[in-house]
Amino acid sequence: MTYPTEADLAVLKKLGLPVPTETKTQKNEEQE
Amino acid sequence: MAIYLDNLVGLKIATVDLSSYVTAITLTQTFDEVETTVMGNSAHNFAKGLEASTLQVDFLNDWAAAKVGATLQAAYGTSVTAVMIPVTGTIVSATNPLYTVSILVNNLTPVGTGGPGDYATSSMTFTCTSTVAYATSGSF
To answer: Does residue B108 sit at the A interface (CB-CB below 8 Å)?
Structure first.
């Protein structure tokens, strides 16, 4: 999944924290 | 790394690192069991349904800016990203995987729980609104 999402960014804006310009993607891997 | 002391679990909610306020955390991965029993079966049959995981976190409350109270209040009523790692400060790997999931912040205990002799704590269970992404690479 890719984040921060729009909801994450909204939280950061409410908190007055810097908003990251890059997103991260966690590729789901098969669990053994 | 094999077994480890459970005192370095990392938690970020909406990318805000709240690890230092977490006293207990449980991510329960589960999925619905959909009954597929048909004529001729002599036992109930089930198939995997939708994922229905939950994240339970106990926090020490802190109402300072961008800490537990403010972050959860800002996220209240929305689905935000939660990222967890078993051992913070250690590289993400097969023995220290990263778990990422969207949680619906649908409950808060904003004034906390406790009495005159206690630190204010909040214990909340969030419903996951995505599958839990399991990754052995990346960063916390």
So the answer is: no
Q: How far apart are CA A27 and CA B135, in angstroms?
A: 6
What is the predicted pLDDT for the residue at B113? 86
ipTM field: 0.88
Asked if A2 and B108 count as a contact pair (C-beta separation under 8 A), the reply is no
CA-only gyration radius of chain A, Å: 12
Q: What is the pTM of this model?
A: 0.91
pLDDT over 70 percentage in chain B:
99
B98 neighbors B81 (Cβ within 8 angstroms)? no
More confident residue, B37 or B115: B37
Q: Is A23 on the interface with B (CB under 8 A)?
A: no
Please answer yes or no on whether A1 and B70 come within 8 Å at the CB atom: no
Q: How confident is the model at residue B70 (pLDDT cuts 50, 70, 90)?
A: very high
Q: Is CATH 3.40.1000 what the domain over B10-135 is classified as, yes or no?
A: no
Shortest distance between the Cα of A21 and any Cα of chain B, in A, equals 13
DSSP letter for A17, please.
P
> Which amino acid, one-letter code, is at B115?
G
Considering only alpha carbons, which residue of chain B is nearest residue A27?
B135
